[in-house]
Write a structure and sequence with these properties.
The complex is a heterotrimer of chains A (658), B (333) and C (226). Chain B is built from 12 helices and 8 strands. With 333 residues, chain B is an alpha/beta fold. The chains are: A alpha/beta (658), B alpha/beta (333), C alpha/beta (226).
């Protein structure tokens, strides 16, 4: 039976196995963590910087203390220095070729997926560089090299990229159709800023967001004022506002229709903006432009009384009598984006009466066979990760169609999601603070477009990853093996196991501490991915590596305690367990049977251990195991050492073979 | 013919039975069944009847789990009349504490011969018209071989089974064990005899023998192991009263094999002559058994017919019994 | 398993004379496996007892429930939870379960619905045989896996006794002589010499029930109270 989705994975549009990569990080297995992410996400580095992290919103830790910093952990692992990857073996082109219009996140994702399936893929990009809207994200949030890293990795799979090639201008849809492409996926995004019917719009220093940001990206000189007013409440508005600050604008104010509670921009962005001295004026909308000497001198704003109606539809209402004049010598509108549909003119792709492309959102199809849409051009504004997911969907539909001739959207998932914590378990959980993100001090940030979030170091990452609650990891109780001995039921520190005919575990409660699995007399329980076999292999491998020497000492370190330096004994066998609570008597006895006489178990202090309630039991069981072993090996000793405080420079844990 | 390598060994217990066996003469023991009552005269009468015709007299111990005057009490009655008893001790009714206590008690009266047997299961007591005590809790704290070893430890080491010392040293015992001399899987009966001898059995009284050939075979195998030189084997002879009795023993009594020919022989005799025939058969058996190397004596069981014994002993040429020094009812050698 | 046998229904009914609301508690382990006290049997009892009670003019309300195992209180507790408590419980588990119930149920009387017979194994469907007497000091290493204490009527340790006839025990012609089985097994394993030379000394019965009611206490398994 499939385990339920952890909420983080369920929330992710591409179903990243977040729990898995976080746990791998916690165990020091960074390379593997990166592979887990890469398996579903072609933009790991980008997402590690700018993803809106719907996963964190659903992280169950949020109800306890604070969500695990899933995005920051992703960032951490994408920054790991790795040995240069061996030259990738390219998938041979065994099927036809497909053209993709737009090298943004949805287009490049579709491109990678289809390329990996054996199609020949050509991507046409309007701009001089790939990346689409990602390019316009300010560099202090998404450095150039990060975006380039991901994009190059995608293109390196053998995808042909043609930049400066705009559909409808440099090439027509019909050209592509005639050129033997079996399918065309248009991922053109929403490349135009919406404007307002306000007089003066388009004048100097009264501009729209996208052209402004394009200029900033291109390094073109951007005329700025001293007081800027940014109209809009989304992340793009914040991007613009913070960019203007870095361009030297002394006073930047954001005004948006939404109330404070409704502001679409993320809390983090709003917080950053506020820290940078950007003012916020929620519930205000532009009424008219104020001019002085022919230049824009500000806006008169009117109160917004409501943005959405009771059916949540966009239906703003104003109070024109309640006005406020805001002085500004620069106004930027960031009130939304629209797609450029001019390329459809003269093509068989139809538009509706409102000028939108006629499309089936389920099937990604247009009125023209073999011409598909994906990303924001199909679905409207969305996040990068949503675009990635959408590109994937489109690729799957196209592949299905090309192989079978049938248009079918991928079947919906039917998998349960781990529910909320039962209160009783919740109250027993240990509170652990979220690791703060090291930042460039406030005043220094505005000096330029350098990143001000510096990223976790290894110690911080290990600690933060250790906060993961392992939602839905287990335990899985094999009904056939279960002898109903009741040990797991009695042992579980969170009362997560109930008695039915056999023992049944509640996935909402389990923290994957592993006590039950270690204790089960029938070996009927598995928790998370940790298995007896794994540890046995680890032991065998490490002993093998030590040969011909026969080490007498073994140091077993809890993965979460690995953030601290423990005395490294070069002659000892070093082993890693997710938590000391996973360690079973059998594991120690295996060591002892192989000649180990001194066992040191390094674990977190009870205050730091997220399985603190289980630690005592683990110590009891392991001590008893050693007592038993003394019948055969009288000199065997076991010592429990609490890991010291977190140090920032700890030796690379990758030296420990897993 | 008796063959016992005894010349060099000192007397173990000094009992009359031991002395007869030591002297190399063919020993005779007979059995008395005590009454299911407390009248001592039954025991005394039977004892007086047989005293000249056997070297020692076995008194059974609640045989077939029927409550009778105890073997130890009957042995006291006999020894007080100068008759040598062989006390029988089963494992069914007493634990090791009671057994050792009774042995010390018996020894205080000068009783020296003790036959160690497992004892019939208590369910046997409810048979025929008897209700018995089939629901009694049996003991079997030790088995017969452990009992032999226990008595040997008392006698030779002066120690109780648990290790405590017996005040003023252990009792002088002549330790006996039973043997069922029939062919069995793995020849286990011979192996078990060896265990009894190893545990310390000084003399052996066998279950009744009717099949001489089979007995010869098993004695040969016992001799192969030298058992006949380390213990004295007295072959059992059960005096048959009727063909029916022989048939019953063949079908229902464990360890007794009756050849068909013998049954036919008894059946061929008129009912009023049956007992005579039975005596005759017994004499023949004794004579045949005497010929077998390693057989040191004969143990005659005339169940509820002790009167038959004198005639049999005489007819077998075993009367009078040899003169040896009387067993001294004290503990000196 | 522990082999139990249902008591006659009349006996059970006789226990219940002073009671009105009775719970028949079945056990899903040994008692069920030997078809004496599992769900099926307790439900049968739940049908028959009221009928018999009515015949005798008794006012008896009977409910049946079975739990996985009566000898672990956590399985029983939910069955007895709730406000509708019985006046008496007839336990169809082995004596261990019945005793545990008595330890836990203060004002509610507990009666045995079965006779607990022995520790045994299935020899054929519907047939169970005593195999182990729980002596606490196993000698099966010396008797080739066949227990002389449980399978010999006299618990002889150096057997067989003279009462063994044609491989059967003197007390019952249907009862195998345990010692002959041991000898046969030794023979099959080529270990007759071992058997011949092995003397098993008098047993220390202190580890058996003769030493008093027994208890096992594993300190290494103890779950500390939080």
């Amino acid at each position: 039976m499939e385990r339920p989705f952890p909420p983080c994975q369920a929330a992710c549009p591409v179903r990243t196995d977040t729990r898995e990569y976080v746990n791998l990080i916690a165990w020091g297995r960074f390379e593997e963590a990166l592979q887990v992410i890469r398996k579903v996400n072609p933009f790991p580095s980008v997402c590690g910087r700018i993803c809106q992290h719907p996963c964190e919103a659903k992280c169950r830790r949020g109800a306890l203390d604070a969500a695990v910093a899933l995005k920051e952990l992703k960032r951490f692992v994408t920054e790991i220095e790795t040995a240069p990857a061996p030259a990738m073996e390219l998938v041979p082109v065994t099927r036809g070729k497909i053209a993709i219009v737009g090298a943004g996140p949805s287009g490049l994702t579709a491109a990678q997926d289809l390329r990996e399936m054996g199609y020949g893929v050509t991507v046409l990009e309007r701009l001089a560089h790939p990346g689409g809207m990602l390019n316009l994200i300010p560099k202090y949030r998404l450095p150039e090299r990060i975006l380039r890293k991901d994009v190059e990795a995608i293109l390196a799979r053998g995808i042909e990229l043609k930049c400066n090639c705009e559909i409808g201008r440099d090439v027509q849809l019909s050209d592509l159709q005639a050129d033997g492409y079996q399918a065309i996926i248009v991922c053109a995004g929403l490349s135009r800023s919406r404007g307002l019917a306000l007089p003066g719009f388009g004048a100097e220093r009264f501009v729209a967001a996208i052209p402004l940001m394009m200029d900033v990206w291109a390094g073109n000189p951007v005329p700025v004022g001293r007081k800027a007013l940014v109209i809009g409440g989304g992340n793009v508005a914040v991007d613009v506002a913070r960019t203007l600050r870095r361009l030297g604008v002394e006073q930047v104010t954001m005004a948006c229709m939404e109330s404070h509670a409704e502001i679409p921009a993320s809390e983090e962005e709003i917080a950053a903006a506020t820290e940078e001295g950007i003012g916020l004026m929620p519930s205000w909308a532009p009424k008219r432009v104020l001019k002085k000497d022919g230049h824009v001198a500000g806006l008169e704003l009117m109160r917004v009384t409501r943005v959405f109606d009771d059916k949540k539809r966009f239906s703003p209402q104003y109070d024109p009598a309640h006005v406020k004049a805001v002085a500004a010598d620069m106004v930027v509108l960031t009130i939304g984006q629209a797609g450029d549909t001019s390329w459809t003119l003269g093509s068989p792709v139809k538009l509706d009466r409102r000028g939108r492309i006629v499309a089936d959102r389920e099937l990604h199809s247009t009125s023209e066979p073999r011409v598909f849409l994906a990303g924001e051009v199909l679905n409207g504004p969305g996040s990068a990760i949503q675009a990635i997911a959408d590109g994937r969907r489109a690729a799957a539909i196209v592949d299905q169609f090309l192989r079978t001739g049938i248009m079918k959207s991928p079947p919906p998932e039917d998998r349960a999601i781990v529910g909320e914590f039962p209160k009783a378990a919740h109250d027993k959980l240990h509170r652990l603070d979220r690791m703060p993100m090291p930042q460039v001090p406030g005043p220094e940030r505005l000096a330029g477009f350098h990143e001000h979030e510096l990223g976790y170091d290894q110690a911080a990452a290990l600690t933060e990853a250790g906060r993961c609650l392992n939602c839905g990891s287990g335990p899985t109780i094999d009904e056939v093996k279960c002898a109903s001995c009741l040990a797991c039921f009695r042992l579980c520190p969170l009362d997560g196991i109930t008695i039915q005919k056999k023992m049944v575990a509640a996935p909402e409660t389990c923290q994957a501490c592993g006590l039950c699995a270690a204790e089960c007399p029938q070996g009927a329980i598995t928790v998370g991915h940790w298995t007896r076999e794994q540890f046995r292999e680890q032991i065998d491998r490490n002993l093998d590596v030590a040969r011909p020497a026969r080490p007498r000492a073994a140091v077993v370190t809890c993965a979460h305690a690995a953030t601290s330096k423990s005395e490294s004994d070069a002659a000892a066998v070093h082993l890693r367990v997710p938590c000391v609570t996973h360690l079973a008597a059998r594991d120690l006895l295996r060591l002892i049977a192989n000649g180990i006489e001194e066992i040191r178990v390094v674990l977190c202090s009870p205050a730091a251990c997220k399985h603190a309630s289980g630690q005592q039991r683990a110590k009891q069981v392991l001590t008893a195991a050693v007592q038993r072993a003394r019948a055969v090996r009288p000199k065997v000793t076991i010592e429990f050492v609490e890991a010291g405080q977190v140090l920032s420079e700890s030796p690379s844990v990758q030296g420990v073979s897993q | 013919m008796p063959s016992l390598d005894i010349a060099a060994k000192p007397l173990i217990s000094g009992s009359r039975l031991e002395r007869v066996l030591r002297s190399g003469q063919f020993a005779v023991t007979a059995e008395i069944g005590p009454p299911p009552g407390c009248d001592p005269s039954v025991v005394v009468t039977k004892g007086d009847l047989l005293r000249s015709y056997a070297d020692a007299l076995n008194i059974t111990d609640n045989q077939t789990a029927v409550v009778r005057l105890s073997s130890i009490a009957a042995a006291v009655l006999l020894i007080q009349r100068g008759i040598e008893p062989v006390m029988q001790m089963t494992c069914r009714d007493r634990n090791r504490i009671a057994i050792q206590s009774d042995v010390l008690g018996a020894a205080s009266f000068g009783i020296r011969n003790c036959l160690c047997i497992a004892g019939d299961h208590q369910s046997f007591g409810a048979a025929g018209k008897l209700k018995g005590h089939p629901g009694a809790k049996n003991v079997y704290d030790v088995d017969s071989i452990q009992l032999v070893a226990m008595l040997k430890k008392m006698r030779d080491e002066g120690l109780l089974e648990g290790g405590d010392a017996i005040e003023h040293g252990g009792p002088r015992l002549f330790i006996g064990a039973a043997w069922t001399p029939v062919k069995e899987v793995g020849d286990i009966r011979v192996l078990r005899l060896a265990k009894k001898v190893a545990a310390g059995a000084d003399f052996i009284q066998t279950q009744g023998v009717y099949d001489i050939e089979e007995f010869k075979g098993i004695m040969s195998r016992a001799r192969d192991r030298g058992l006949h030189t380390r213990t004295c084997i007295l072959a059992g002879v059960i005096v048959p009263k009727s063909a029916g009795m022989l048939r019953y023993m063949q079908s229902s009594v464990a360890g007794v094999k009756v050849p068909d020919a013998l049954i036919q022989r008894m059946a061929g005799v008129k009912k009023d002559k049956a007992r005579e025939e039975g005596k005759k058969i017994s004499v023949e058996l004794i004579q045949q058994l005497r010929e077998i190397e390693g057989v040191s004596g004969v143990h005659i069981q005339a169940i509820e017919w002790e009167e038959a014994v004198p005639d049999i002993v005489k007819a077998a040429g075993l009367f009078p019994r040899p003169e040896v020094e009387a067993a001294v009812p004290s503990r000196e050698p | 398993m522990i082999v139990v046998r249902r008591k006659p229904i009349e006996s059970i009914l006789a226990f219940l004379a002073p009671y009105r609301k009775v719970l028949l508690l079945g056990c899903g382990s040994c008692a069920a496996v030997c078809f004496a006290g599992g769900e099926k049997e307790t439900e049968e009892m739940a049908c028959l007892l009221p009928v018999m009670a009515a015949d005798k003019g008794m006012d008896l309300e009977v409910r049946a429930a079975t739990c996985q195992r009566v000898c672990d209180w956590e399985f029983v507790e939910p069955v007895l939870a709730g406000d509708d408590k019985p006046d008496a419980v007839v336990s169809f588990s082995c004596g261990a379960g019945t005793n545990l119930l008595a330890d836990h149920l203060g004002a509610i009387r507990v009666f045995p619905g079965v006779d607990t017979l022995f520790i045994g194994a299935t020899t054929e469907h519907g047939q169970w045989q005593e195999m182990c007497s729980g002596c606490g000091d196993c000698v099966l290493d010396r008797t080739f896996g066949i227990c002389p204490i449980a399978r010999c009527s006299k618990s002889i340790l150096n057997g067989p006794c003279g009462g063994s006839k044609d491989g059967k025990c003197e007390i019952n012609p249907e009862t195998d002589c345990g010692w002959i089985k041991i000898v046969e097994r030794a023979q099959a394993l080529g270990k007759l010499d071992d058997l011949a030379s092995t003397y098993i000394a008098p047993k220390n019965w202190a580890s058996s029930h003769h030493g008093g009611p027994r208890r096992v206490k594993r300190e290494d398994l103890k779950i500390a109270k939080p």
